[in-house]
Structure formats: C-alpha cells, structure tokens
Amino acid sequence: MKSCRLFLVPIVACLIAGGFAGKALAQSETPVLVRGQITDPIKKTVLYPATVRNKNTNAKAFSDNGGYYRISASKGDVIIVSFIGYVSDSFTVTNYAGTQVNDVRMREQERFLPSVEVSGKWSPYQLDSLARAEEFRPFLETENRSLVDKSKRGPGQGGFGVVFSPFSRYSQKEKDLRKFKKLYDEYNRQSYVDYRYSKAFVTKVTGLVGDSLLQFIYKYTPSHDLLRTMTNETLIYWTAERAKLWRRDPKATLKEDQ
Q1: Which listed residue, of 31, 122, 194, 216, carries a Cα 20 to 30 Å from 168's Cα?
Q2: 125 neighbors 192 (Cβ within 8 angstroms)
C-alpha cells in the first residue's frame, strides 16, 4: 500500500505541474485589447494616421483622427508605433487579458544634414528615404481596394462576376490607408526639396542669411518635379538669377520656368 502511494506522488505532481503550465499557456494566448492615444506633446497635437503594428503577429492598425488606436495582442507581444517624420516608439504588452492602456508621446525626428555626404554611394536624403521605406514597408505593401473588386471574377467570366464594393473602398480602414500613403508621398517629395534646395545651399549661392534668406526661399523654391529635372549646375544658375532680381527689386517675380 505504501509503495502504491509513493508511486502516485510523482503522477499527481506531474498533473499539477501540467495544470499550471496549461493555465499559464492559456493566459499568454488570451487576447489583450491594447489601446491609447498618440500625440506630440510639444506641439500639443494628435497624430493621425499614426501606424500601429504588432511585431509578433504583424497585425496592423491606424490611429483615428483623434489620435486614438486599438490593436489586439497577447502578453509579451511588442507593439511598434510610428508616424511620418517622428521617431518611432515601442512597448511590450504586460497584461494577461482584458485591456491595456498605453498612451504614446512622440517626438519629431531630426532632419538629415543636407550638406553632409555620408558616403560616395548614398546621400543623406537617400539613406533617410531607405530607412523610412523599411520602417513603413508593412503598410506601404498593403494594397488599396478599388471600387471594383476584380478578385471575385472567376476564370472565363470576362466582365461577369465583377463585384462593386463601395463599402470596402470607402471604409474607415481604407480611408486611413489612402491618407497615410498620401502623407508618405508628400513627405518624401518635401524631403527631396529640402535636400536639394537647403538653406545652406541657397546661402552659398546667394550670400543671403537671416530673414532675407527665409523671405527669398519662401518666394523662390523650385517644385519637386522641376528639381528632379535639374542638374546641380542648372539649379545654381536658377537660384543665382533670382537672387540678382531679388537684390534689385524684392517685389519683382520670375516664374519658375523662366
């Protein structure tokens, strides 16, 4: 009888240990609703649409126009929060279940130094663009839904089977995605302008500094599309000609293509 009891002890211990392990595993797999608000505390503004990604599951979400976000996660998951032009932030989910509130305060990213060449192969602008593309790649690779869902059309159906999906096209999620991609494109275009037509460059060509420099740049800044067609020599000439006119008559204006 005593030997039977001794035999049962390790079995009971294993069952208890297994129960605790199963309970811990179940807790770690219990969904947690992570939510909060994403803001810029310096400018006292909300950030929309900020991107929110679960690094472990690759689940994605955007903040709304009030800066609020929500995303599903489990204990131990890492949540990455990003906004174009800001330093990304991350945190680890600590709750086993229920709701975890994480408000995120973000700070603007320091711009690259246009006058500094990092290497002979890559310019600061190019390195900045590559890093930004990698950071937002999961969202940039998400396809926008069109008004016509051609994926519903079967083989050999021709025009039949095409499904109009206005609810998908105009859902809040799709609107957020389109707005994000638009902001991303605008930021990239402006970054290129800031790189090619920097204050340091304009000062070097014109000799202008201080308020005069700012007023000149405000009046004469080539568009992104024009800059893409200009060599450095052409840009220097374009800037110098406008600086001459500026000194003679600040009120006079040369058109961009003159």
Answers
A1: 31
A2: yes
Which residue in 258, 228, 230 sits closest to 245, CA to CA?
258
Which pLDDT band holds residue 170 (cuts at 50, 70, 90)?
low
- CATH number assigned to the domain with residue range 31-110, chosen from the 4 options 3.40.630.30, 3.40.50.1240, 2.60.40.1120, 3.30.1310.20: 2.60.40.1120
Pairing outcome for strands 104-105 and 45-46:
unpaired
21-43: pLDDT as tens digits: 444 444 456 799 999 999 999 99
* SS3 at position 252: coil
The pLDDT, as a whole number, for residue 15 is 47
pLDDT at 148 over 90: no
Distance CA 147, CA 165 (A): 5
CB-based burial label for 188 (10 Å; 0-12, 13-18, 19+): middle
Largest CA-CA distance found in the chain, in angstroms, rounded: 112
Say how many Å lie between the first and final Cα of the chain, rounded: 106
142 burial (CB, 10 Å; 0-12 / 13-18 / 19+) is middle
Which two three-digit tokens encode residue 246? 């500026």
**Could you tell me the CA-to-CA distances from 147 to 62, 132, 167, 169, 256 in Å, in that order?**
21, 29, 9, 6, 38
SS3 53: strand
Nearest to 128 by CA among 87, 91, 90: 87
For residue 191, give the H/E element and its range.
helix 172-196
Report the Cα 49 to chain-centroid distance in Å: 9
- Amino acid identity at 208: L
pTM for the predicted model, two decimal places: 0.76
- pLDDT number for residue 169: 52
